[in-house]
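Here is a protein:
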Amino acid sequence: MLVTIKKYKESIGYGISLALLFFLLRWLEIRLLIFSHQYEIYVGAIAILFTALGIWLANKITSPKTIIIEKEVLVNDIPFTVNEEVLSQLKISKRELEVLSLMASGKSNQEIAAQLYVSLSTIKTHAANLFEKLDAKRRTQAIETAKKLQILP
C-alpha cells in the first residue's frame, strides 16, 4: 500500500493542485458575476424578503379565529310536565302556548298560521303577546325563557 502511494504521489499532487485551481477559478467567476449583477441581486433579495414578509403577515391577519362557546345543557330523566303555576302567573293562554311550542319546533309564522287555521296577523299578535309576557325581544329569547320556566320541554 505504501509503495502504491509513493508511486502515484506526483499524480495525486497534480490532481489536488488542479482541484484547488478549479475552485479558485469558480470562486473568481462567481465574484465577477456578483459584481457585474450586484443591483439585480440586491433587488431580488429585497423582493424575496418582502414576499416572505407579505405571506407571513397575510397568514397572521386572515387566520381563522375559533371561538368556543360553552353552554350548560340540562338533561332530566323525569318526564316533562308543564308548570301550570307559571302559566297562570304569566296569563299565557292555551293558544299562545300552542303557538310557542310550534315556534320552538322551528316553524315560521306562516307555517304556524297554516297549521292552526288562523290568519298570519293572529299569529303575529300571539307572538307579540308572548314576547311581552316572557319579557323577550326575539323568538329564541322567548323559547329559552319558556324552557327555563318549564313551560316548554
The longest helix spans residues 9-36. The radius of gyration is 42 Å. Residues 84-148 form a domain with the Arc Repressor Mutant, subunit A fold (CATH 1.10.10.10). The chain has two domains: 2-62, 84-148.
